[in-house]
Amino acid sequence: MILLDIDGVLIPFRNRPAASRRSSGGTPLAPDPSGNPLLDRLDIEDGRRLLALPGELAWASTWMAEANEVVAPLLGLPVLPVVDFLDADEEPPRGVHWKTAPLARWAAGRPFVWLDDEITDADRLWVSAHHPQPALLHRVDPHLGLTGDDLATARQWIEELNETA
Questions:
Q1: Quick check: 120 and 161 in contact, CB under 8 A?
Q2: How far is 52 from 48, CA to CA, in rounded Å?
Q3: How is residue 130 annotated by DSSP?
Q4: Burial track 131-151 (b if 16+ CB lie within 10 A, e otherwise)
Q5: What are the residue ranges of helices labelled H in the chain?
Q6: What pLDDT, in 10s, does the model give residues 49-78?
Q7: What is the pTM of this model?
C-alpha cells in the first residue's frame, strides 16, 4: 500500500516550473473548476509515475473524498481508497503526527509506504513499535513536492520487500 498526502507532497509549497504543469500533450492544464489556486502546482506526470509504482495507492490526506473529486482527475488517477480520519480525535503521543496511528490501523497489518511532508523520527519509531509489518515512512520536502528521488526510494523499498517475501 502506498498512502499519499496531497498538501506539501503533490501540491508543493513553492510553485513548480511551468513545464511540469502541462498535460501530456504539452498544453497547459485546464483551469481547476473548484477555484483552488494551489492546484496549478500539481505536476501532471505525478499521476503516471504513481501508477507505475508496484503497490495499491490510497489517499492519506485531509482532502479525504475531495482527493478523488478534484485531485485525481487532474493527475489522471482513478478513484482511490481514502483513509477516513473522522475518528482521529485521539491524542497522539508527544511528537507523533496525528495521522500516524490511524494510518497504521487502516493498513490493518499490511506493509505500507506513507509519503507525507510532516513525517518525523517519532512517527517511524511509533510505527515500528505498533505495526506488525514493515513500513516506509518517507518525508517529502514540502517546498519541492514529490520528486523522482522520492518515488525511487518508495519503488526500491517495495521491490526489496517483495524479494524477501
A1: no
A2: 6
A3: H
A4: beebbbbbbbbbebbbeeebb
A5: 45-51, 66, 72-75, 100-107, 121-130, 148-164
A6: 999 999 999 999 999 999 999 999 999 999
A7: 0.88
